[in-house]
Amino acid sequence: MTDVAQSELHPLSGIRKVAARRMVEAWQAPVFHLSVEVVMTEALKVKQVVPTATVTDVITKAVARSLMDHPDVNSRVTEEGILKFASANVGIAVATEKGLTVPVIHLANEKSLEELAQARKEIVTKARDGKLGREDISNGTFSISNLGMMGIDSFDAILNIPQSAILAIGQTSMRYLYNDGDPHWLEAATFTLTCDHRSLDGATAAAFLADLENNLELPVSK
Q1: Burial classification of residue 163, based on how many CB atoms lie within 10 Å of its CB (0-12 exposed, 13-18 middle, 19 or more buried)
Q2: How would DSSP label each residue in 27-75?
Q3: Which backbone phi and psi does 79 adopt, to 5 degrees?
């Protein structure tokens, strides 16, 4: 039996307190999940194109491009209705000593792969150093959570309220895939989209995921 007398209370404060409140709000939203396996062969060649970039940067670029083609996904729920955005401000979930935070790469759709790599490096460093400003965490329109580096195959991310969707990414591993009738062992990862059903329906979300899959399976461009 646990000795209660030796237990310690750690009050919620700062990032953790805000995160706890938003999680409660997120669980109140009617959500659904869609998953797709994405072949990562081309994305893994990123450093041959831009040495400073990572697979996360390739994903961010593909996400931003797909959001521009699917504005219903690039939105948030408000009391007045669904607010759709003309630019993609993509949040990247970052684990810090003080809790999970989601700094934002603003205007990701206008940035080159090299610019995205630099922006991602800057906000992740600021997040882990506890130096994020309000502008670094404000006005996000979509979020990405990647646990692949921790060995997670797939998961359902919790909505980053009030955004309409968040993308969860699992680890890349060798999988035996149909490959248009020519089965092969290919490097692939599971992408799972969590959607707010108040602003998105299944067909709209599926079209976004299919477009994102296609963008990621194309050769990496600068």
Answers
A1: buried
A2: HTS-EEEEEEEEE-TTGGGHHHH-TT--HHHHHHHHHHHHHHH-TTTSE
A3: -65, -25
pLDDT digits (tens, 9 = 90+) for 159-169: 999 999 999 99
Q: Is 134 within 8 Å of 154 (Cβ atoms)?
A: no
Q: What is the pTM assigned to this prediction?
A: 0.88
Q: State in Å, rounded, how far the first CA of the chain is from the last one.
A: 58
Which of the residues 10, 106, 184, 197 is marked catalytic?
A: 197
For residue 97, pLDDT over 90 is answered with: no
C-alpha 46/C-alpha 167 separation (Å) is 20
| Distance set, CA 121 to CA 96, 104, 146, 159, 172 (Å) | 14, 12, 15, 24, 21
Has 184 been annotated as catalytic? no
**Dihedral of the alpha carbons of 209, 211, 212, 218, in degrees to the nearest 10:** 150
Question: Phi then psi for 9, rounded to 5 degrees?
Answer: -95, 125
Confidence band, pLDDT 50/70/90 cuts, at residue 25: low
